[in-house]
Amino acid sequence: MKNTKLFALLALLLFSSCAVIEINGLGNDYKDLDESHKALVRPLESFEEAQLELVYKLTIPQLKEALEQQPKAIVRVFNAACKDNKCKPLSTFQQYAQENGYVLYQVMISYAGLEDAVAQAKDFPLFVIDNEYYKTSLQPLYLRYFTNELLGLPRKTKDRDVPEEFIGHLYFFEYGQLTKVMDDL
């Protein structure tokens, strides 16, 4: 009851003020792109025809079909807007994949940081989760659905119910079968 009253009070204060508050990270951030960057985003028709320096909206059925064809593959799900010292350049993962015989799919969680990601991806295409496939623009929700389906879990599995061995951002596959999950190389 206390939380409901607090939420109602906060909502009243926010909506009655003249200030506009923008919170990044709740949606896919597409609206924040300028027209030249929006032009880089395309629906994925096929992996074979994916062009460099473009970003393709990706669904799990498309990705799973591609993974089934690859002897060894890594799916990296990442935040391109990451500014932390722990955030490695995209080329680090691409180099690791090439040196170890993997095909790498680098999948952004949103369009935030797209300009920087495209600048780093001169030798490989980039992908972004197609939130429209999940019929929601809420990033935490479509990210959870995407990850759950990638892991072979029911789409609506809660984060707290995901087994510990499935926690990470790097998903390793052999012919479409998940072999391990890591948080870092």
Characterise the protein shown here.
The chain has helices spanning 2-16, 35-38, 60-69, 90-99, 114-120, 139-151; strands at 41-43, 55-58, 73-78, 103-108, 126-129, 170-174, 177-182. It is of the alpha/beta class and 185 residues long. It has a seven-stranded mixed beta sheet, with helices on both faces. Strand 4 (103-108), helix 5 (114-120) and strand 5 form a beta-alpha-beta unit.
| CA distance, first residue to last residue | 45 Å
Order of helices and strands: HHEEHEHEHEHEE
Structural class: alpha/beta
* Regions with little confidence, pLDDT below 50 for 5+ residues: 4-23
Number of strands: 7
Report strand %. Answer: 15-25%
CATH architecture label: 3-Layer(aba) Sandwich
Largest sheet: 7 strands, mixed
The helical percent reads: 25-40%
Strand order in the sheet with the most strands: 1-2-5-4-3-6-7
Brief rundown of the structure:
The chain is an alpha/beta fold. The chain is built from six helices and seven strands, in the order H-H-E-E-H-E-H-E-H-E-H-E-E. Helix content is 32%, strand content 18%.
